[in-house]
Structures are given as C-alpha cells and as structure tokens.
Amino acid sequence: MKDQPPIDQPLWDGLPAEARAAVSALVDSYERWLAELEQRLGRNSTNSSRPPSSDPPSLKRRRPPAPHSGRKRGGQPGHRRHVRPLVPPERLRQVVECRPPSCRRCGDALAGDDPEPIRHQVAEVPPIQPVVDEYRLHRLKCPRCRTTTCAKLPPGVPIGAFRPRLRAALSVLAGAYRLGKRPIRQLACDLLGLSISAGVICRLERQWAAELEAPVEGLREHDRAAASAHIDETSWWQGRDKMWLWAAITKGATGFTIAKSRGAAVAKAMLGTDRRKVVISDRFKSYAWVKRRQFCWAHLRRDFQAMIDRGGEAGEVGRRLLDRSDALFRWWHRVRDGTLARSSFRLYVSWLRDCLRDDLRRGLGCGCAQTAATCRELLAGETHLWTFVRVEGIEPTNNHAERALRHGVIYRKLSGGTDSESGSRFVERMLSVLATCRQQGMNVQDYLTRAYRAHLDGGTVPSLIPAAPPIAPA
C-alpha cells in the first residue's frame, strides 16, 4: 500500500493496529485485483494468444499515409512484368487469325503471316447445364408365380441423385469455401439449375465423411510416423458441448481432429509416442510429455511484449528479451536465405543464449509475479528454445499450425460449430483433405471426384500420403 493512508489521517491514527493491518491488506488486495483487471483489458494479439480478429478498433486504425514519393502510381520502370498465363492451344475453342489489310502509313495492301503474332485470349463460361441421365426401373410381374420383380441399376450408377464430380463440387463448397447448407442450396439452383434440399446436403455430408475415412486415417498414420510435426488446437462447438479442433502438420500432410478433450491423450494419439520425434508447439501443458520439443518463438515475442506493457522493471526485462529475439530472427532469416552459414549461426546463438539466460534470471526478481512466472517457465524449459538450432529442418515458430487452424476458426465463426458427431467427422476430414491437397499442390475438386468415383466402383480410395522422394543411385 502507498504511504498515504486510505482514509483521513485523524481517523487512521485513531484505529487500532489490528484494524490498520486489516484495512491495509484489503486495500492491497483491491489494488492487485484492479491491476489484474487492467492488464486483462489491455490484452490483444500483440501481447497474448488472442487472435487479431478480437483486437479493439483502436488497434485497427489505418496507418497515416506516407509522404508522396513523386512517382506515378503503378509499376515503375524496370519492374518485373506479371502477365496472366495463356491457355495451351489444345484447350482453345477456336483460333482467329487477324491480319491488317493495309499499311497504317501509306495504305498499301499487306499480305503474309507474322511468325510471332501477339496472342490475345478471351475467356467465357458457357451456360452450365448439368447432364442428367434417367434410369427407368421397370417392375414386371411373373406370369407363372405372379411375383413382381424390379430391375436393378446398372453397375457404376449411384443410388443417390448425384454423380462423383457434382458431389465433389458440392463438398468443396461446404468444406473449402465454408458455405452453409442454405447458400449451397441457393447456389446449386442459381448456377446449376438443380433443386437440392437442406436435408439432402446433410445426408451428403454424412456420406462424404464415411467415404473419406480411409484416406484421412492414412494421413494420421503418416503424421504419427513423421520425424517432426507442428501441432496446435483451438476451441470448437458441437451442439452445446465445447470441443477442441486439433491440427497436426507434417511435411506434405495435415490431419485435423475434433475431440472432447484438450489433454495430452489427444496429442499423443495425433503425434505418436516416438521419443525421437521433434514437435513444434506452444508451451501448453498437453505437450509437456514431448522430449524433443521446440517452443514457438512467435508466442515468446508476444509474452515479451506483455512484459513491456506491464512497465517498470518487468518492462525493461521484456524490452531486452524482445531485442534478443529480433537479433535471433535476423540471423535465422539469413540462414534460411543462404546468406549465413549454419555453423556461424550456431556460434552467434551460443552467445545470445547466455545473454537471454541472464535476462530471464533478472526477470525472476523484477517484482512482477506474472513476468517472474514466465521467466521461471522458460528457464525450466530452456533446452526447448534452441531445438531448431540443433536440428536442421525445424522452424523456430509454430506458424504452420496456426495458419492451418485459421480456416477452421473462420469455419467456426461462420457456422457456430457443428450440431452432431457426424457433422464433426465431416468437418475434420474435409479440412484434412483440403489442407493436404493444398500442401501437395493438388486440385481438391479432382481428388474428391476420384475418391467418390473409387468408392462408387468398389475400389480403393486414392491415398493422400505424399510419395517419398526417389533415392539417387549410389
């Protein structure tokens, strides 16, 4: 408590010592509580794990315009030209040769061909008319026993009303573009001229989830067997139950899981239990069992900024730690660009590591309980700060996992989550297929078409596991 008493001095002097102590303790408790509330109000995406979408409007103001450079708008002389790629000749509907009839200067007639004419392509979308086949199943009565027999659909014809490519298009609208059932229904009517009910879309989502179970389970096995993985989680709602959307990202594959728990059991099921595996994550306790772990430095920088915002000696500690991380990332970017040898990088980091350790020890005695707790946690797990220095191919941040989860976060905000277990299975499997196809440069529409066609024909659904690179001959 401050030297000034909380009440008038004469009244304060007249209180017994026990009453003064009680009032002082109450005022100190109130001041700590008020400081904690002010700190909570000051949290944003720069000093905590809150997403940028939750920032107050004061942090979203546009920057003041920069002074005019005196140059014209647009591309400057010497800049690299960007043009739209031309469609190959075999995909053109027609080629129209345009020749000038006469000279634009003297008017004399012109003839011949330009060996390298200017190619100007104009694209158009024809009216989309779905191809509809009708199968008439005749029911005939036996003249002998009077039993009625109905014909069966030919092989390869789905029981439902949609073939694989149309089903793939609808699933892309739901999973990749996050459209709800009513917008999908309206788009199918406006663009394709099809009448689809919301109930049919729900039934299709259950079918899509069942047909994608095998390839997504293969992705999860690949993630468990990988040498390294990024992992993160975010909240999700299934009806009125709070769930968690998990994402595990490895080289060429991404697997999503919606689970009831945020605990270590889910993390172990997604990552496997290989002690040699390197896991890049935040400092959440569900990953404490991982032996080879890399703390996310992007999260650390936000923690350092939170120290700065607290002010005082804690702010000075935060500024020093943030400066250390700035130097670290400058060196790391040079290593990634190939302008700094990894051996030199390790030498620089060995010096930086000692300085960072001294700053963290200073933070233990700064007088701020939260800053001291963060410094104590980092000192206890100091070895996890530098895994990316020791092991090649490991990133210092968990940005891959956070970017992968962003699609799911927007999905949750638009839809409010899912209503049932089957809906959650559809979301996790469709997100897994979408993210993996984008990682591998595959067209998700083409993959889903092949997957649904294989399921319809009774074959094996194509795998999403990335192919191993060929081994060079000795």
At a glance:
By secondary structure, this protein is α/β, with parallel strands linked by helices.
Task: Throw out a few tags for this protein.
about 475 residues; alpha/beta; Nucleotidyltransferase, domain 5; five-stranded mixed β-sheet; two-stranded antiparallel sheet; 15 helices; disordered C terminus
Structure explained in plain terms:
With about 475 residues, the protein is α/β, with parallel strands linked by helices. Among the domains are: about 210-290 and about 400-440, Nucleotidyltransferase, domain 5, CATH 3.30.420; about 295-390, no CATH class. Helices cover about 45% and strands about 10% of the residues. It has 15 helices and seven strands. It has helices spanning about 10-15, 15-40, 165-175, 180-190, 200-210, 215-225, 265-270, 295-310, 310-335, 340-365, 370-380, 385-390, 400-415, 420-440, 445-455, and strands at about 140, 150, 230-240, 240-250, 255-260, 280, 290-295. Strands 5-4-3-6-7 form a five-stranded mixed beta sheet, with helices on both faces. Strand 1 (about 140) and strand 2 (about 150) form a beta hairpin. Helix 3 packs across helix 15 (about 445-455), helix 8 runs antiparallel to helix 9 (about 310-335) and helix 9 (about 310-335) packs antiparallel against helix 10. The radius of gyration is 32 Å and the shape is extended. The chain starts with 8 loop residues before the first helix and ends in an 18-residue tail after the last helix. Residues about 470-474 have low confidence and may be disordered.
Helix and strand run: HHEEHHHHEEEHEEHHHHHHHH
Q: Helical amount among residues, as a percent range?
A: 40-55%
Rg (CA only): 32 Å
CATH topology of one domain: Nucleotidyltransferase, domain 5
How much of the sequence is in beta strands?
A: 5-15%
Mean pLDDT: 89
Q: State the end-to-end distance.
A: 75 Å
Give the overall shape, derived from the CA principal axes. extended
Name of the CATH first level of one domain: Alpha Beta
Largest sheet: 5 strands, mixed
Strand order of the largest sheet: 5-4-3-6-7
Q: Runs with pLDDT <50, length 5+? A: 470-474
